[in-house]
Design brief:
Elements: E1 2-3, E2 8-11, E3 17-22, E4 25-29, H1 35-47, E5 54-56, H2 62-65, H3 68-75, E6 78-82, H4 85-90, H5 94-99, E7 123-125, E8 128-132, E9 136-142, E10 151-155, E11 158-162, H6 168-174, H7 182-193, E12 199-202, H8 212-235, E13 240-241, H9 242-252, H10 260-279, E14 283-288, E15 291-296
Parallel strand pairs: 4-5, 5-6, 6-7, 11-12
Antiparallel strand pairs: 1-2, 2-3, 3-4, 8-9, 9-10, 10-11, 13-15, 14-15
Bound molecules: zinc ion.
Residues 59, 61, 64, 146-147, 163 line the site of zinc ion (ZN).
């Protein structure tokens, strides 16, 4: 447990868990991937005599809410989450459903990386400055792009940035980071560059006071991938199929996708760059010979 100021803490791990203390109240920010990850955090806070009364879930990805159901039951926590993300948290089968583009999910992908135990949300929230449950004065910042309605939490000068950006090492390790929309991701990052905080904790990566160079690095990574996708479409004769561009991108970036879950996560991310290029009019999507294909917009 690392204390960041009078009220803010972080448990740095593969998936960071935040904690904010206000008198008799204490709010966890995200819950880790499973019971064992959140159990350690609860134990440490217990030993320090710090209360846990609330849990804020930034977005409905299993690595951030997998431990939530256990924590809520054990401590009778009030769970707070963004609208839309809350719908997925309460019906967590939706994540493997959308990963498989709407089909009922194969048993193989109903694992803890894509589907945590569902958790009932007590309070749904939108972005803006507000007092959560009358106890926590926060600025909730909409950072869509990584997930549909992810909210980062600004409190007492600290930004809990969720997965709006990754640590420098982490983003290089991912090669093609998980996103659902490249233009939303980039707009969220540009917006965060304008915000003033004394430090920031991403979902994956270290707490940093000078976090803006890390955000800048994230922007460069996304722009490079966008450029790569565009080049691939430009170099294709008569267009490229969705299946081929996904495969070529994974090959080019040396992605290890030997399991269906990993393959689907990367397919979604690559598709996010493609759909953004379609929306900006740089490439067009066509159906040709029963295949979904892309070509440059000339
Ligand atoms: Zn995530």
């Amino acid at each position: 447990m690392k204390q960041l100021n009078d009220s803010c803490y972080v448990f740095e791990s593969a998936v960071n868990i935040g904690y904010v203390h206000k008198g008799n109240y204490g709010m966890l920010i995200d819950a880790g991937i499973d019971q064992s990850s959140i159990r350690k955090v609860i134990r440490e806070l217990d030993e320090a005599n710090l209360p846990i009364t609330h849990l804020f879930i930034t977005h409905a990805h299993a690595d951030h809410y997998g431990g939530a159901n256990y924590a809520k039951k054990k401590l009778d926590l009030k769970v707070i989450a963004p609208t839309l993300e809350a719908a997925i948290l309460e019906n967590s089968i939706l994540e493997p459903i959308y990963m498989l583009q709407g089909n009922f999910p194969l048993t193989e992908i109903r694992n803890k990386f894509l589907e945590g135990p569902p958790v009932q949300v007590d309070i749904t929230v939108e972005s803006g400055i507000q007092k959560l449950d009358n106890h926590f004065e926060v600025e909730l910042i909409a950072t869509p792009g990584h997930s549909y309605h992810q909210l980062a939490v600004g409190i007492d000068g600290i930004l809990y940035a969720a997965d709006s950006y990754f640590g420098k090492e982490e983003i290089l390790k991912h090669k093609i980071p998980f996103i659902t929309s490249a233009d939303q991701t980039l707009a969220s990052l540009e917006m965060l560059l304008e915000k003033e905080f004394s430090g920031s904790v991403p979902g994956h990566g270290p707490y940093e006071e000078n976090f803006k160079s890390t955000i800048q690095k994230n922007i460069e990574v996304h722009q490079d991938i966008l450029e790569e996708v565009k080049t691939m479409v430009a170099c294709s004769q008569g267009g490229i199929t969705h299946e081929n561009i996904v495969a070529e991108m994974m090959e080019k970036y040396h992605i290890k996708a030997d399991q269906l879950s990993l393959f689907l996560l990367h397919r979604t991310a690559i598709t996010a760059y493609i759909t953004s290029l379609i929306e900006t009019g740089e490439i067009v999507s066509i159906i040709k010979n029963y295949r979904w294909m892309y070509q440059l917009n000339e």
